[in-house]
Amino acid sequence: MTEPIESRETMLRDVNAKPRSTVVWAAALVLAALPLVISVPLATDILIWGIFGMGFNLLLGYTGVLSFGHAAYFGLGAYASGLAMRYWGAGIWAAIAAGVAAPMLLACFIGALAIRRRGVYFAMISLAFGQMLFFLALSPLKHITRGEDGLTHIPLAEVFSLPLHKPVPIYYFIFAITTVMLYMTWRILESPFGRLLRAFRENEERAKACGYNTTLVKFFTLVLSALYGGLAGALNMLYLNYVPLTTLFWLTSGTIVMMTILGGKGTFLGPLVGAAVFLFLQNTISLWTPRWELFVGAIFVAIILAFPGGIMGTIRTIVNNRKTARLQKRAPAVPSEG
Amino acid sequence: MFSDVNWTVFFMQLFFGLALGSIFVLLASGLSIIYGLLDVVNFAHGTFAMLGAYAVFVAVSLSGSFAVGIISAVAIVALIGVLVELFLLKPLYGKDPLLPLLLTFGLSVAVPDLVKIVFGLTGKPVAYPEGLSGATLAGPLILSNYRLFIIVFTLVILISLWLFLKKSDLGMIIRAATRDSLMVQVLGTNTSRIWTIGFALGTGLAALAGAIAVPMLAATPDMGVEMTMTAFVVTVVGGLGSLGGAIVGGLLIGVIVAFTSLVAGEYSNVAMYFCMAVILLIRPRGLFGESGRE
Amino acid sequence: MLLRTEGICKHFGGLRAVDGVDFTLKEGQLKSIIGPNGAGKTTLFNLIAGVYRPTAGKVFFRDRDITRLSLHQTSRLGITKTYQITQIFPGLTVFENVRIAAQSRVSAFNFWRSTHSFAPLNERALEILRQVELLEKRNWLASTLSHGERRYLEIGIALATEPQVLLLDEPTAGMSVAETAMCAGLIRRLNRELRLSIVLVEHDMSVVMGISEEILVLNEGRVLAEGTPREVSDNREVQRVYLGEEKYA
Q: Nearest by CB to C110, which of A193, A198, A320?
């Protein structure tokens, strides 16, 4: 084997280039301009679901844990923050804090109970817990949650004297938070923990044999994704000034699953892209038929069959194939021997 | 302190619970057979039950006979099951084990909307079959004939299922394949056909559950998801892939739902999920689950 | 004694996969486990590494009872196994495969610092890639490597976890004759130069006889013979068991 002539420094630079956050700022730029292209309510929905999806993707896309009850975190975040504002007169930041903390506690509980179970088992259990919350809010806790009517009479919020009940200010408020979350997700994925998540996505068994406590990683990621879910729920409450019971409905869980898979699980931008495409489809189809679920469901089935990697996953595969072809052209065709 | 009236109420409620539980048993045993054979958690299980309910509605309005309704419901839904297995699930075997779950989830989103387009949004009622509409008096108890029928019918189905799995050649192959599909391949049986049959059997049982429930509930497009959830809870409680677990879990959940709706009506929907959480705490693999299967 | 099992058993239903095996490994030793298919070699590995809980018996590492530890815990103690069927991270680069394994010894739950700043880890990963001769392909996706290269990469991953004992499960499986010879050389170097204690499960008798200091022969879950390569190959019992299996050698 010919000894490589490169120096150690160039080699290090080449395998471990300093990560660049360009992708975060580019995405933020696109999101900032979004209300110029599509309606502001649609754009706001994309941001909220995008945050929700980022957290869900950390769990499904990287640790491979499928939660079918993520509406529990989204809905609990919405209710906790909404209740805090309505009954305790909490300010906007305190409400958001409540909307993040409560779902994280719930995730600790569900995780402690079920995260060790095999994948399909966890999916069923999480779905059942999601339903439990839905029915709790529907009738036993009706005197607090207002049951089917949803939580109304939430005081209007203001931040830095911006009226958050107007469409454009709330959009840019949520946009700022989305950008923070995008940056945070990016930092996490470039950290040792994030690198571990990527390895986990590729081969859980091998990660375990390397000495990583895989159960703990799953638990941590579940709680982390509840943070995103709760935050998205709280923002949804601020945006609507109302918490509909449907935030806890199973279809909310199903929607985040569909968005994440559509956009590409285990990719950085997948959840945002998925949320955008899904909501755009939903809006467009709703214009000429109320039966949008038929089409969205059918598209989802087709994606599972033909492109399980989703939009960004398929693009990544193509890019990777190109890169491999380039590397193979440069290297000797036969593995070097001797 | 228990008066006769209290005991009457107790037994009436137990009876309701067993009848409700029987429907759950049929649902969950179908789910269990599919999981045991194909390693697929069928999210569309309740959707198949819903299709069974609509098939009964159509067949009864055409023929006027409830028996014809049940038979055609099972036949039609099992056929749909075969098509789904052949064209949608088969391509996913050997890939990520979560994909079949996601695919059947997609079906459970899309199919109810299709039903809404064909049958409209309102529920489709089916009358109690003739001869089963009244009630039977047993001492102080008034037992609805139709609920009695459900319990007996489920028992008959379970015994036939058991005989089929224990005695028939096909049943024995299915049981062997449930344990170890590789072994069956070694024996030279075409496992892919066994899987198709197993999926048809499971969806057929789901259709049966939907079909016998329809005179009490009326067929609605969104009944499927509720039934899927119930089947999931029963399977988690009973143990995934265990037929005995499906039976005990189904009856247990049925009785619990019946009693909570008597004692604390507003908790009736929550009760089974609480029950599941408790079971998970004290016996994580479910009542009948094999260790290592969880 | 570095590693020791005491009457270890693993039963799967009626099958006694491992049935009362006493196994010992001295510091710095290279020991092979051989035996016909189904003799219980891989099961013994999995018992030592904590993949399975034994039905009976105990495992000791430096006189510490590690019987009830799980896979990630034994790995942290320094017992690392490779797999019969290659287990790598296919969608990551060759470098990242090794780096992630090296990272397991430093910091798993660091959420904020960039991995870029962990320079010693990166250096170490490169050093290991040099040892397993994959330095040139450091930027390739692991999924694009040839079969032999993947097996090397897996050894590299194992090395990166700074093992004290390396459990190699048929490392030369599926390799060509030339690749097998090179792999045997690599294993010998790891043992002699890096002073690694190695347990080797291997079908290729030329490899086993060539590099092992001691050999343990298993048959139907029990120890059939133990000794130097010479003693084992002269053993009548061993000859009898292997007579019909000449084609494996």
A: A193
Domain assignments of chain C as residue spans, ordered by start: 27-51+69-78+163-249, 88-162
Residue whose entry in the numeric block shows the structure tokens 């798993």: C108
The pTM of this model reads 0.85
Q: What are the structure tokens assigned to C73, written together?
A: 């815990």
Tens of pLDDT, residue by residue over B193-233, are: 888 888 999 999 999 999 999 888 888 888 988 899 899 99
HEC secondary structure over A127-152 = HHHHHHHHHHHHCCCHHHHCHHHCEC
Query: Distances in Å between the alpha carbon of B104 and those of A125, B86, B196?
Result: 17, 13, 15
How many alpha carbons fall within 13 Å on the CB side of residue C131? Answer: 23
For residue B233, which amino acid is it?
V
Question: How far is Cα of residue B214 from the mean position of the Cα atoms in its chain?
Answer: 13
Angle among Cα B76, B80, B85 to the nearest 5 degrees reads 145
Report the chain A residue with the minimal C-alpha distance to residue B241.
A121
CB burial of B265-289 (b: ≥16 within 10 Å; e: otherwise) equals: ebbbbbbbbebbbebbeeebbbbbb
Question: Per the structure block, which two tokens stand in for A288?
Answer: 């000429």
Query: Per CATH, is C27-51+69-78+163-249 categorized as 3.40.50.300?
Result: yes
Pairing of β A162-163 and β A158-159: antiparallel
**What value, to the nearest 5°, has the Cα angle with vertex C133 and ends C130 and C134?**
90
The tokens describing A95, both together, are 């409400």
Query: Residue C193: what residue type?
Result: E
Residues 38-67 of B with CB under 8 A from A: 41
- C127 reaches A (C-beta below 8 A): no
Distances (CA, A) of B141 to B14, B129, B259, C128: 11, 22, 16, 79
Beta bridge partners of C214: C31
CA–CA gap between residue C210 and residue C30 (Å, rounded): 11
Report yes or no: A15 at the C interface, CB cutoff 8 Å. yes
Both tokens assigned to A287: 């214009």
Within an 8 Å CB–CB cutoff, is residue B232 touching chain A?
yes
> Under an 8 A CB cutoff, do A250 and B229 touch?
yes
A42 touches chain B (CB under 8 A): no
Alpha helices (runs of H) in chain B, residue ranges in sequence order: 4-38, 45-63, 66-84, 99-119, 145-167, 169-179, 181-186, 191-217, 223-238, 243-263, 268-282
Pick among A7, A16, A191 to test the C interface (most C CBs inside 10 A):
A16
pLDDT digit string, tens, across residues A61-105 = 888 889 988 999 999 999 999 999 888 887 889 899 999 999 999
- Comparing CA positions, the residue from A14, A157, A25 lying closest to residue A81 is A157
- Which residues are CB-contacts of C80 (< 8 A; sequence separation ≥ 6)? A209, A210, C158, C161, C163, C165, C166, C167
Say whether the C–A interface has 3 or more Cβ pairs within 8 Å. yes
Instruction: Tell me how far CA of residue B132 lies from CA of A62, B154, B156, C154, in angstroms.
Output: 55, 15, 17, 68
The tokens of A94 are what? 């305190």
